[in-house]
Design a protein that fits this description.
The protein is α/β, with parallel strands linked by helices. It contains eleven helices and 19 strands. α7 links the parallel β7 and β8. α1 crosses α3. Bound molecules: pyridoxal-5'-phosphate. Pyridoxal-5'-phosphate (PLP) binds next to α9.
């Protein structure tokens, strides 16, 4: 089937490689003497993990984190001699992949520790739960002798509320210090993006940012330093004039107060542009802001054209996708705004 160059694809995700690297460098500086890794789970938060890894590895990043073995296998050709950790640990069924791949399980439970030992051990990472009550050994389990003799590369824990100024941060820091002092590991790691913003007390030997790499602002400290990376771009499929009194879209939620020129674009909730953007989102065409009118459909969105806006079918519009602003408008989190970006975009990297 004849195709077209990705740059000519009707739906695109414009990705700024220089901004990605600049964000990693800033996070790396904020991490002080700790190494700065990168969480690239969920296909690099929706951007495309292989290209993210390639660019960050070239910038000096040596530690990557995915959730699953399928994600690890997909990245294997791009990881080189960098370190790739698998956060979900190992199930029995994962053992063949775990042995074959150049990737390391993050052991989360006593059963996973036993499984790894039975398979001959080898370097592993270990997660300790310090109060989130998600994955990880309890501090009591971790210090019970369960880990004796294991070759632990990174001992880690995860912060539950680092995006807020709450007592839980200090409590998790103390709990992690206490347990880390009793378990031999090559490196210790606690901070995600927001945790890095809390200061170098939280950095230990290795940090694990995700969101901020991709342009999310985890805390006020990152404002002005973290640059946007992602911009969806769509195409005008059809222009029409909706006469006064007529309605647009499913369930006719928008009604024209006067004759209104409308542009229909090739984007919808199947692309992660969820219905929460209905009557709230905006697109940019030249100097003009085009409001989303009516419901977002699966594959289509309607935009109102200002009177002085010149537009043609085939024109490209950029979707306003500032993560903080979009999160405020829609009630979605910046994580959801990124990881929901679907597979229909041609992902086009610049820089
Ligand atoms: C996703 C994840 C991170 C990255 O978190 P961000 O908030 O995106 O910076 C770090 N560590 C673990 C264990 C994670 O699951």
């Amino acid at each position: 089937m004849p195709g077209f160059a990705p740059e000519a694809a009707p739906l695109r995700l414009a990705l700024d490689g220089a901004a990605l690297v600049s964000n990693w460098r800033w996070l790396s500086r904020q991490s002080g003497s700790a190494a700065c890794g990168a969480a690239v789970k969920a296909d690099g938060y929706g951007l495309g993990a292989a290209e993210v890894v390639r660019r960050l590895a070239a910038a000096g990043c040596r530690d990557f984190f995915v959730a699953t073995w399928a994600e690890a296998a997909a990245l294997a050709p791009f990881i080189g001699d960098a370190r790739l950790s698998v956060l979900h640990g190992v199930r029995e069924r994962d053992m063949p992949l775990a042995k074959a791949l150049h990737a390391i399980p993050v052991l989360n439970s006593a059963a996973q520790v036993a499984r790894w030992r039975a398979a001959g051990g080898g370097e592993c990472d270990v997660m300790v739960d310090t109060g989130m009550n998600r994955l990880g050994l309890t501090p009591a389990e971790a210090t019970s002798g369960l880990l004796d003799g294991l070759a632990i590369g990174t001992l880690m824990s995860h912060l539950a509320s680092a995006d807020a100024d709450v007592a839980q941060n200090g409590e998790q820091l103390s709990a992690f210090r206490a347990v880390a002092g009793r378990i031999p590991a090559r490196r210790r790691s606690l901070a995600n993006s927001a945790g890095i913003c809390l200061g170098t007390d939280y950095a230990f030997d290795l940090t694990r940012p995700g969101l901020a790499l991709y342009g999310g602002i985890p805390r006020a400290e990152a404002e002005g330093a973290i640059r946007p990376v992602v911009a969806p771009q769509a195409e005008i499929l059809q222009l029409r004039t909706v006469p006064a009194g007529a309605t647009v879209g499913y369930n006719a939620t928008w009604q024209a107060a006067r004759d209104t020129r409308v542009a229909i674009i090739n984007l919808g909730y199947a692309d992660g542009y969820l219905r929460a953007f209905s009557d709230k989102g905006r697109a940019i065409l030249g100097d003009h802001l085009l409001p989303v009118i009516g419901r977002v459909s699966m594959d289509l969105v309607a935009l109102a054209l200002p009177d002085d806006c010149i537009a043609s079918e085939g024109d490209c519009v950029t979707i306003a996708y500032d993560l903080a602003e979009s999160a405020r408008l829609t009630g979605l989190s910046p994580y959801e705004l990124l990881t929901g970006l679907g597979q229909r975009y041609a992902r086009i990297w610049t820089n």
